[in-house]
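Hey, I was hoping to borrow your eyes for a little while. No rush at all, and the record is pasted right below.
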Amino acid sequence: MNIKNLATRAVAGILYILIILIGVLGGRYSFLIIFSSILGIGLFEFYRMMEKDTSHAISKIFNIFMGILIFLSAFLFLEDISRYFLPATVLTYLLVLISSTTFIKRNDVLHGIIYSAFGQLYITLPMCLLMLISYSQPYNYAGIGYDYIPVIALFVFLWVNDTAAYFIGSLTGKHKLIEHISPKKSVEGFVAGIIFTLLSSLIFAHLYPDFSIVFWAGFALIVSLFGTLGDLFESLIKRTCSVKDSGNLIPGHGGILDRIDSLLIAIPAVFLYLIIFLSI
């Protein structure tokens, strides 16, 4: 990568990080606006990749709209504004998908249902869990209800892992990690990502001593391992769809889905970790 491309990638990456920080640190309404936008764009990129060679029976616009609506209804549930809107929205979406098998006269309608539901499972569910994580902590540093600490830790660990893996892997990587899925990823970069992420966990242990060093180290390790898995999984999707990037929204990085791929798999793993460690 030449200097110009590296500079473009760096500037775009910094702007992306600033947007995420505004979304997380700005409070629950800022979180809602930023991450519902990210969700919508991510769903658009995913369904567009799925429709690269053929148009599916079920509209991607409908799927994107319902994904955002589910996310908003999760917010209303956590804010205790409406306990019924979330289950009603999910059930309505499922009923529409199932009913479409009767009204849509296409042989591939079942494929459309599968691709529709998987997009929600892959993108919308983790984003809802991310919101749930921010409402489920015993130490609410940001006030009653919303707590940004576990969310910002998740992002910082992902960024440290990705950055270390990218630069160390580019400089010293000689052994391919899983070449048939992602030829550029190396074992050296993978190990470097884990080491630097664990080191960054020491900073959080110092800043937030209510949680032990063991807790933060475990948190960092989970993020590093499952974040890498998420990156590899999206690489598999792109390879299957024969595309280089999910989009071109972020110069030097690709699309939104290329930036949150590691996040999507790390979130459920972190949520399970918090359940086990903190009994949230």
Notes: The chain has one domain: 3-278.
